[in-house]
Design brief:
Radius of gyration: 19 Å
Shape: globular
Number of helices: 9
Structural class: alpha/beta
Helix content: 40-55%
Strand order of the largest sheet: 2-1-3-4-5
Strand content: 5-15%
Distance between the termini: 47 Å
Order of helices and strands: HEHHEHEHHEHEHH
């Protein structure tokens, strides 16, 4: 086969390569054996509905054989989370931040734009300190919804490792819930397993 325009073909290959590079999945730095992960969020991080040992940070710590600090506060909205994050980051100096916040904003029908700005500011605070961020999306109040749209937008803007499906999938099934908005021990375990697999896939372990 003879190419009519070799230069055009080569340019096309370069364009495809550039596009593929642009869509490369984000990578995480390996968390050392003595490293620290900070699970930051609201009651879903705290583990409302189960014993502390069954919260997702506790299960994740056992799965990854790494320290995971549970920095969940029940009932917290993103404006309150933003207000306490900087001090928490300074105190703990984590290698990795697992950010699962915004559910209370959604339940209380707060302005999605403001919630997005608060979450983005949290990401920027962590990155400014050299802490990598993994974002976990909370489903919208719509039936069968995956994570609210602003989570994916933030993940794309800041090139974050992102899970926008697991929590929504679990919350759709009463089998994995302790009440209308919280998981039971099995649900938190499945969330931790999914996050451990995500972290491993992207290089944290």
């Amino acid at each position: 086969m003879t190419l009519k325009n070799p230069r055009s073909f080569a340019a096309s290959l370069l364009l495809v390569a550039a596009l593929l590079q642009g869509y490369a999945e984000p990578r995480l730095s390996a968390v050392p054996p003595d490293g620290t992960q900070l699970a930051f969020g609201d009651s879903l991080t705290l583990g409302v509905g189960v014993a502390t040992a069954d919260s997702y940070p506790s299960v994740l710590s056992r799965l990854g054989e790494r320290r995971v600090i549970n920095a969940g506060v029940s009932g917290e909205t993103t404006d309150l989370g933003l207000a306490r994050l900087q001090q928490t980051l300074q105190q703990e100096s984590p290698d990795l931040l697992l950010l699962l916040e915004g559910g209370n904003d959604i339940l209380r029908s707060k302005d999605p734009g403001k919630t997005k700005r608060n979450l983005a500011a949290m990401v920027e605070l962590a990155q400014a300190q050299g802490t990598e961020v993994v974002l976990v999306g909370v489903p919208d109040k719509l039936l069968f919804s995956d994570a609210a749209a602003f989570y994916g937008e933030i993940a794309e803007q800041y090139d974050l490792v992102f899970d926008g499906e697991t929590l929504a999938d679990l919350l759709r099934s009463s089998e994995y819930k302790s009440d209308a908005v919280h998981l039971n021990a099995q649900g938190y375990r499945l969330l931790a397993v999914a996050l451990h697999e995500l972290l491993t896939e992207h290089g944290a372990f």
